Amino acid sequence: MRLSKAFIPTLKEIPSDAVIPSHQLMLRAGLMRQLTAGVYAFLPLGYRAMLKATQIVREEMNAIGGQEFHLPALNPESLWIQTGRRNIPNFILSVKERDLVLAPTHEEVIAWIAAMHIQSYKDLPQIWYQIQTKFRNEPRPRSGVLRGRQFVMKDSYTLDTSYDGLDIGYDSHAQAYRNIFTRCGLKFFVVGASSGAMGGTGSQEFMVESESGEDTVVLCPKCGYAANLEVAASGIAKVSRAGDNKPLEEIHTPNVKTIDELAAFLKVDHTRLAKSLVYRHNGKPLLILMTGNDQLNESKLGAALGGGEFRAMEAEELKSLTGADGGSIGPVGLKGFRIIADERLEGANNLISGANRNDYHLGNLDLIRDTTIDGYFDLRTVETGETCTTCASPLKIANAIELGHIFKLGTKYSEALNASYLDENGQSKPVVMGSYGIGIERIIACAIEQSRDANGIIWDKALAPYQIHLIAINMSNKDIVLASNEIYRLLNEAALETLFDERANVSPGFKFKDADLLGMPIQVIVGEKGLKNNQVEIKVRRTGERSMIAREELLSTLKAMLSA
RNA sequence: CGGGGUGUGGCGCAGCCUGGCUAGCGCACCUGCCUUGGGCGCAGGGGGUCGCAGGUUCGAAUCCUGUCACCCCGACCA
Fold first, then answer.
1. Is the per-residue pLDDT at A197 higher than 70?
2. Which of A111, A144, A149, A345 sits at 20 to 30 Å (Cα–Cα) from A357?
3. Which chain B nucleotides are covered by protein, judged by CB under 7 A?
4. Distance CA A475, CA A215 (A)
5. Distance, angstroms, CA A140 to C1' B65?
6. Beta strand pairing status for A202-209 and A215-219?
7. What are the structural domains of chain A?
8. pLDDT digits 0-9 by tens, A31-73
9. Omega within 30 of 0 (cis) for the link into A89
């Protein structure tokens, strides 16, 4: 492509709306433009990178036996009502004029097709996938393409007769995903994840560590343990049980509101304090006991409660229900509450909790003697520096971007939409499904987040819109014009994707800055000095390394560099 | 949805508090000359209903009311 003819609108200045590096660079390098909040138009250069990514994904999906579909974005609303997903908050965008919705994902359509055509165990297993645009009603799009209302997703679905079959499909996806992200040149890791409202029995996320990421993950640098903070565990010690069990006593604690104040006031360790959090679960009062300042993890709470709605209780509600304020609530003598506790507190005694009376706490609390705990669960949020459950090394907490997510779905959608098959015994059974997604724009954004410098993007050759950026230093010099055009012809004949900066009246500095901003892996620079010696210059974008090469050796050198 | 911020040529911004001459600056763009190894120089030029709608006023980019859009923090995130 000749740059003088190309539509690649680069920006010298950073658009004020862009905050994270990938967003800034995608705009500056002319990859895309924002149309409205969370919706981007991909321009030719950006689309080329997207096509590179989708092709890699497609090849790896085909390699595990995936069959590509082209599915409708417009879906009948009724389909989503059948699976109960029509009314998930902030999920579906709908069409005003018809009872149609814009598909946010395709479990429903896949199950509908399966219901119609999968009849026998002989028809299974299947791997079906598509690479298409999805729509979601994001309340707050942000971070460029990382969280949009419209995005391209590869989603695939496994259809199996059994959970053993599902495991095979799931594992093959896990391997395909590793291949995909490795080929894209990304440094990624896999974490255990929450299945959330998708339902299902297991899930993992493929993550790229990034300050701009919206997910938080716990990592063990030593043994490789990695989990989403929503499900991560640590080896933090349980609260000990003391031998001598003293009787309950009421302690006057005037104006003590927080756990820190209480620990300071009583001069005791945080682990002796049982903090009470008050929620409503499906409308019913729920008391949650946590150790000291341990933070309740609402994802874990949701899992422990096994579904249903829950929310923290309002201050007035709490006061009217217990007669005390938030800082003085405790498990003893509390009527009408279900009580659960973090497993750190299991069987603990000599604790201090609120007395359900303002300005008083209870000492020498023994959870076994004095309370009825309805269950102990892992409810706490892991904190940095706590030890790894596997190898006892200190854990690290990092932000990350979710590139892909794989789920063992089970039969939720196949049951809702009657996707069933007859087994060997003529019994009708629901198809066992798995669901697997990859965000294509996120691949691009992560690649840029992970590989850039002050001057611009540094593309890996796998995703680079062009492999080579050919620069003619001075188009008023006939020798340079002849030589660079000849080189351009040569590279095209050799099928090396080349962007040729043959703009006249553009200074060398401008061309170099543009080339670094656009970030193609190799720059070939045709200048006066080199030509005198029948040489051209090669610059490696990533390292900045430059070398002079004899013109006859250019093609072979480039081929060697690009196949390395 | 709660909090904060911003809307002024294509981009980045100033002007607004304290209303008043012709709405300004940098970049980009057009023409000519010039220059060619890190975002050249000189000269000339085009382009803006100041987000939108009301209101106050002799007079509104500026003050008031409403509204819309976008960004950030939080909540949410299948």
1. no
2. A345
3. 1-2, 11-13, 26-28, 34-40, 69-78
4. 49
5. 28
6. unpaired
7. 21-185+410-448 (3.30.930.10), 249-377 (3.90.960.10), 466-563 (3.40.50.800)
8. 999 999 999 999 999 999 999 999 999 999 999 999 999 999 9
9. no
